[in-house]
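A.,

Following up on our hallway conversation. Structure tokens first:
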């Protein structure tokens, strides 16, 4: 599967995002009761934030998933762990579908990670999913995340996990000598 990415447009994409983030299967996104205006506002705030970015992942030119990345020195994890140079925080959301495709979500997280590691400054990706979200923990492990510890965020108890560039590419069978630093 091949995916492309484009910046999310908070106004043009709000209706699509609203359907995704308020669906019962997106419970861990914590926007179940959000109105359309709430989604617009949340993503306008991200669009205006130099430390947080939202992208739509496209498949054949059509929106297929949401990706967010952020600087954990300034967002999400401030004061909850000791960030290292090259750390990048990440969230992704695959919308619900009536026709699930085997391996799709794994392909999405792999594409998201590859996109983050395209930036040579990215040394390690940091995630903080809800401790109860066992499905995403399993996906994270597949691409190379290693759980560190549970942390208490204002909105949830989270499993702080890290994936280094080397570990990600090793999981994909790419020798470390071929990994751009």
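Then the amino acids I'd put at each of the 181 positions:
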């Amino acid at each position: 599967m091949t995916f492309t990415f484009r910046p999310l447009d908070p106004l043009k994409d709000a209706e699509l995002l609203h359907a995704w983030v308020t669906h019962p299967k997106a419970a861990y996104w914590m926007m179940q009761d959000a109105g359309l205006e709430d989604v617009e506002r949340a993503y306008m705030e991200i669009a205006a934030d130099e430390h947080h970015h939202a992208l739509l992942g496209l498949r054949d030119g059509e929106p297929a998933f949401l990706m967010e990345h952020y600087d954990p020195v300034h967002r999400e994890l401030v004061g909850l762990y000791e960030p290292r140079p090259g750390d990048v925080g990440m969230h992704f959301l695959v919308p619900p579908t009536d026709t699930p495709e085997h391996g799709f979500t794994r392909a999405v997280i792999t594409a998201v990670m590859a996109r983050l590691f395209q930036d040579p400054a990215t040394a390690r990706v940091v995630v903080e999913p809800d401790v109860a979200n066992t499905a995403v923990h399993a996906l994270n492990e597949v691409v190379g995340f290693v759980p560190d510890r549970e942390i208490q965020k204002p909105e949830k108890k989270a499993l702080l996990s890290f994936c280094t560039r080397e570990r990600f590419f090793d999981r994909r069978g790419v020798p470390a000598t071929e990994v751009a630093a």
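The two ends are 25 Å apart (CA to CA). Curious whether your intuition agrees with the design.

B.
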